[in-house]
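Moderator note: this is an archived Q&A kept for reference. The question asked for a predicted structure of one protein chain; the sequence and the answer are reproduced below.
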Amino acid sequence: MIVKTKLHESARLSVAPMMAWTDRHCRHFHRLMSQETLLYTEMVTAPALVLGGAVRLLDFNAEEQPLALQLGGSDPAELAKATALGASYGYREINLNLGCPSDRVQSGSFGAILMTQPDLVFSCLQEMQAASDVEVTVKCRIGVDDQEPRDILPKFIEMVQSSGINRVIIHARKAWLNGLSPKENRNIPPLDYSLVYQIKHEFPDLHISLNGGVIDIESARDALDLGMDGVMIGRAAYQTPFEILSRADALIYGSKSGPDADVIAEQMISYIERHLQSGGRLHQVTRHMFGLFSGKPGARFWRRGLSALGAQKSATASDYQTLLKELSKISDKRPEFEVK
């Protein structure tokens, strides 16, 4: 039986770690829409933290919690040190990336390629768990290249569980390290949800989240109703954040919905002002906000306005506020979403 914790409850829905997307500005923006959803950092490599001293990559704001750190690496000792660093910064979870198919990750001998080295993964996971009391989790694919997922995945998950891990996120696609680009790996390999459901049936004591191809909050709720412990949404949560995250607290956690989209846009003003005062640029924040009004009248005006501001190195918070005022003149820009 799964011993449920507050973090396990948060993990009923999570936003996937996405390189160049889920930075601290993105996470602040997402948190305004959902107080409950578990958020993840971009992948941070253990060598960058341990050997490169890039601990600035661990910085986050307290309001981003609940928040998990995703690590990439293949050296057990380095991963243990990186885990300890992440724990000292206050992350609620440390996740090991066993699913990324990029060339850069392969050359570092971590990510999806580690699914071909289960003994090494076992050592990494044990060392990470010994390094701190923070929960360690795994995010993996259903297989790699010529592996037969229905043969290897149950054995791989059994190994993960035997290492002491209690929570796993499974991307329901193979990773083709030879022949497909990282972008193609997000779309071309077919989804096999039935295998992930089978794994959940075979490992009832593991908290298992489904990842891959989930495009709306209704699909996430359906997966939970069918027995999954959690659902992780990636690109859809980034591209249409309001439609998914503003409804998540009500539909997934049984609490109240997030604020309206125009309220969220206004709430970002104070954050933008602080960022600019610290020497940052407006675009570093607003580049994550293009999808806020997606599907509503005014969405194109919003995107064009943010794009124009992003091209100006000297754009200010006042410029952003002017854009909001112009947007408010567009009638019926924000139809309500019905919570079913």
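Archived answer notes: The two ends are 31 Å apart (CA to CA).
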